[in-house]
Amino acid sequence: MNYEQQKKDLILTTMVKYEWETVKPFFKSLERTGFSGEVVIFFNQVDKNTRRAIKMLNIYVTLIPFSQKGLESIFYIADYRYYLFNNFLKKYGYRYNNVLLSDVRDVIFQIDPFKANWKSDSITVAKEAKLLKENLWNTRWVLSKFGNYIYNQLQNEPIICAGTTYGPTNQILHYFNQMIHYLFYTDYVLNTDQAVHTYIVHTGKINPVTFSDNHHGPIMTLELENESDIKINENKQILLKNGDIAPIVHQFDRYPHLTNLVKALYN
Q1: pLDDT tens-place string over residues 151-210
Q2: E strand or H helix at 141, and its extent?
């Protein structure tokens, strides 16, 4: 097979203990966009009915079971996923043009994510609506992982969400190398993937980097957004602050009215 001619775009994600109703918006919304790439899902403790429902979609999906054995069991899944993703992409990266790393429980797609306005030669990361010093959880994560000195360097920088990241395959592999190094080859601290993600972005460990924000997208990251700034059009689509349709909406479930909207759209 000539993979140079048949390369696909790739979405990488993980599912642990999720049922179909929880992840249905992710998959149903993606299906509606006409997405023609591949979704690779590393899963653990996902029931047969959920796996069957995913396989019945008009999306090319690869389901890969995983388990954490021995010392691997100490790693939090949000951290451990980079190890899984890296091993997969090192082996099969020649098959793919661009890669989107995405959470699954709280993400929907309103446009084919690979037809959004990405910068082609860059990693794109999602900038949140607050500075590091303005959010207690992110402050704790950075302090617990890196200590006061690094925190003081980063406290006036925007939080970078680890739930959605986009880039060409070769740059995503470099990103994985940096994430794995700072997660596992320095002192391991449980559940600090976002601290490491924020650190490597703001200290130039990955380059070039493009920032997606809630004004221009392509990713809209909502948890720290002012609720009054979240607009919905007459077609029940969530809008970026510039009035365009948000291609990718992350963390919609932090707002009850958006959760209800998404459930109604994708049930």
Answers
A1: 999 999 999 999 999 999 999 999 999 999 999 999 999 999 999 999 999 999 999 999
A2: helix 136-154
Question: What CA dihedral angle connects 144, 145, 151 and 155, to 10 degrees?
Answer: -90
Assigned token pair, 8: 């696909």
Pairing of the two strands 38-44 and 60-65: parallel
Model pLDDT, residue 5: 59
Cβ atoms of 4 and 95 within 8 Å: the answer is: no
| Helix (H/G/I), strand (E/B), else coil: 175 | helix
In the sheet that holds 209-212, the strands lie side by side as: 60-65, 38-44, 8-16, 96-102, 158-168, 123-131, 209-212
Superfamily for the 3-266 domain:
Spore Coat Polysaccharide Biosynthesis Protein SpsA; Chain A (3.90.550.10)
| Number of other CB atoms surrounding residue 204 within 10 Å | 9
Geometric angle at alpha carbon 19, from 55 and 263, rounded to 5°:
95
What residues does each domain of the chain span?
3-266
Question: What's phi and psi for 265, nearest 5 deg?
Answer: -75, -35
What is d(CA 197, CA 181) in angstroms, rounded to the nearest whole number? 11
Distance CA 143, CA 146 (A): 5
| In contact, 250 and 126? CB cutoff 8 Å | yes
Phi, psi of 26 (to 5 degrees): -60, -55
